[in-house]
Amino acid sequence: MLAYIIRRVFQSVIVLLVVGLVAFAMFRFVGDPIENMLGQERTQEDVERLRSKLGLDQPFVFQYWKFLKAAVQGDFGVSYRQGRPVAEILIERAPSTLELAAVSGTLAMLFGLGLGVYTAIKRNGWVSNLIMTTSLIGVSLPTFLIGILLIYVFSVELGWLPSYGRGETVTVGSWSTGFLTSSGLKALILPSITLGLYQMTLIMRLVRSEMMEVLRTDYVRFARARGLRESAVNFKHALVNTMVPVTTVIGLQLGSIIAFAIITETVFQWPGVGLLFINAVQFVDIPVMAAYLMLISVLFVGINLVVDLLYFIIDPRLRANGVGAH
Amino acid sequence: MKFKETLLATAILFSAGASVSAETLKWARAGDGLTLDPHAQNEGPTITLQRQIMEPLVARDMRGVLVPALATEWDPSDKDPNVWVFKLRQGVKFHDGADFDSEDVVFSLKRAMSDESNYREVLASVVDVRAPDKFTVEIITDGPNPIMPNNLTNMLIMDKDWATANDAIKVQDYEGGQSTYAAKNANGTGAYKLISREPDVKTVMERFDGYWGVEQFPMEVSRLEYIPIQNAATRIAALLSGEVDFIQDVPVQDIDRVVDADGLDVRRTSQNRVIFLGMNQGDTDLKNDNVDGKNPFADVRVRRAMNMSINRLAIQEVVMRGQSEPAGIILPPFVHGWVPELDVVQDPDIETAKALMAEAGYADGFSIKLDCPNDRYINDEAICQAMVGMLAQIGIKVNLDSKPKAQHFPLINNLESDFYMLGWGVPTYDSEYAFNFLVHSKGEAYGSWNNTRYSNPEIDAEIESLASEIRLDVRDASIRKIWDQVQEDVLYLPIHHQVLNWGMKSGVDTIVDPEDSPKIKYFSFK
């Protein structure tokens, strides 16, 4: 088990390094930050001076090396756009993205599992059919369209919910939370539906098909034949056995909820790291882009690691094989 | 619908409001100010936000007219033509209660002239700034500078003691490792004081009751919330739902929607920004065309033909939905040196244009790449698409290449583009600014945005003379002469002056600022 973790962590570090290298190679194609940093009155001399000062005239490998050296000491540089330390900006922005991801992830998981199980058991009921049909909307409509649609219905026409921002937030330590005010909670509703809808339908459809598969197997039939209660059969025997693939997907989806909150955050002017990243790309804010990409890859790698470890807990067969092999 | 009722109610509330009001104005715009450090970013939204909190010596009102701010009088010195003397306003307080005097001006202007400042070039002609007494400041230039006050409208004044106490003497530096207190905090003399700022989220300001101009300006907004909302649809939704009171950038396709909504208005004016195309006419051969060994743009007949093939009225009507003013010159109408006869719009004349092309030896046309931004000007990419069709009429096959601004502008400045779109505003409201950047040959101090490779030594000398010509009639004659030559040579292909559309609740009373820089102290409520 320990050897397995060490090996995975080692692999993760390599993945991170490669992601960083690719990112730095790409930055040259995003544009020239100098254009945005100096006003239109700048001279060629100013441009050259700033370029060499920032080291942008050096090959990207050197820039990457410089970034890595500073990053391992916790210094991600200063944002070209805001002129403040990147670490400070990320810490300021992280709570809003994490809160949004937590709410939409929880919604997606609860409704995804619940509805998936329901539609698998009541396969041919009209409620199931209705759920299945409406879930098609969730997978087929693009996120920004769902967001704008929700804004027009609930903000402009009905006036119930805010169209942008986080509402009032309360700061606890360095964490600003929207959970403690009514406007903060209201502001969470539309973005978390927008962000979680796709994940919810995905989980639901996956749970349903896995569950239907399992319900056909012999041990479920035997369980039924033994006269066990229907709920025990469905949840203890069937659902648990569908969880291995479902956990993988939920894990990866959790990562993408955070990483791809970009679109939802842009539509709702949600002040999280996704919005920060979009602004960074437009401004060619290299320190912020680099830190964000590294952070997201750490996140994905970390989630993958956790998911792998969860397999051990869910599936006893893996446990036996894993230990045996090492 | 509910939102309309709320709006009506608010409108009634506004109309009943007395002059001493406690009104909040929620003001949204696509972009946030990047920093509160007044000398770190020479960028529109940044200056606009800072201007509510800090002030220059000389300001512009909402019509673009030069008015006294922290200076009450200014004149060139009688003794030395290289010196401008500014008399400062007395009894002015900073928001933290400190007194304003000449020491703060000297400190701030020197800060703006420092290496890290974004305004270095604007003050390039300044040699020294000194304070003979507490309320007089002298600016010494390297030669007579007739339009010095015009260059000071963006130079905001900080409190020297505050900057010293908070380690903000130097302009914020991207190299890091140093305090960036001034990026998020500000202490000015402006009509609004900063209450809180969360970058990209919200900046809250409150009316400063100790403001020197309390009696002179309406100042009916008592609390000001500045909220960046990037997505245009969300911004419009926020205005329609009544969550914000004023938005600065209404997309042209949404104007009718806002006008039709009860309790909302759109107000407009032509902006201090003209959109045009530039052509590489200096190189002997172009990289991005299909003609070998020759540069078609070098022939003035080709440029004239291209100018004739553009149907500016069609662009105004179809692409801009009426929201533009066709242009005949690359100078906004309110800038000194603009005269109506220079801004006569060229009528499309395809037959003459074809004849000119044939005369120049390009009867069969040629192909060329047009570089265009897609996130900088209003409908920029669509204008370029229209250009493809229009130039095809005279046989020029345009390959459109549109990119985000971060990639477009380097193409221009690294001289990699032969045919490009550019927009230009003139913050000094004087033609000299446009000449320095767009007409003078590209070199160390001049022509940094002239990527047409156009170089006319006679015109260069004429442009350089403007900087120190204090006889205004002679200077005006030079300006006219240069513009006539620019028009004669078809240096650029002007397209239109942009039009600004501000959307607001009907209760908000303001005119539209041609620089797209609202000064909230002028706002009132009906």
From TrEMBL, chain A:
Keyword Transcription regulation set for record: no
TM spans (from-to): 12-30, 100-118, 130-154, 238-262, 291-314
Biological process terms in GO annotation: transmembrane transport
Family annotation (InterPro entries): BPD_transp_1_N, MetI-like, MetI-like_sf
GO cellular component entries: plasma membrane
Family: Belongs to the binding-protein-dependent transport system permease family.
Stated name of the protein: ABC transporter permease
The species this protein was found in: Kiloniella spongiae
TrEMBL record, chain B:
Molecular function as annotated in GO: peptide transmembrane transporter activity
Subcellular location: Periplasm
Domain of life: Bacteria
Keywords, comma-separated and alphabetical: Signal, Transport
Record has ATP-binding as a keyword: no
Start and end residues of each Solute-binding protein family domain: 66-443
GO BP terms in the entry: peptide transport
Signal peptide: none
GO cellular component: ATP-binding cassette (ABC) transporter complex; outer membrane-bounded periplasmic space
Entry similarity comment: Belongs to the bacterial solute-binding protein 5 family.
PANTHER family: OLIGOPEPTIDE-BINDING PROTEIN APPA, PERIPLASMIC BINDING COMPONENT OF ABC TRANSPORTER
Name of the protein in its database record: Peptide ABC transporter substrate-binding protein
Species the sequence originates in: Kiloniella spongiae
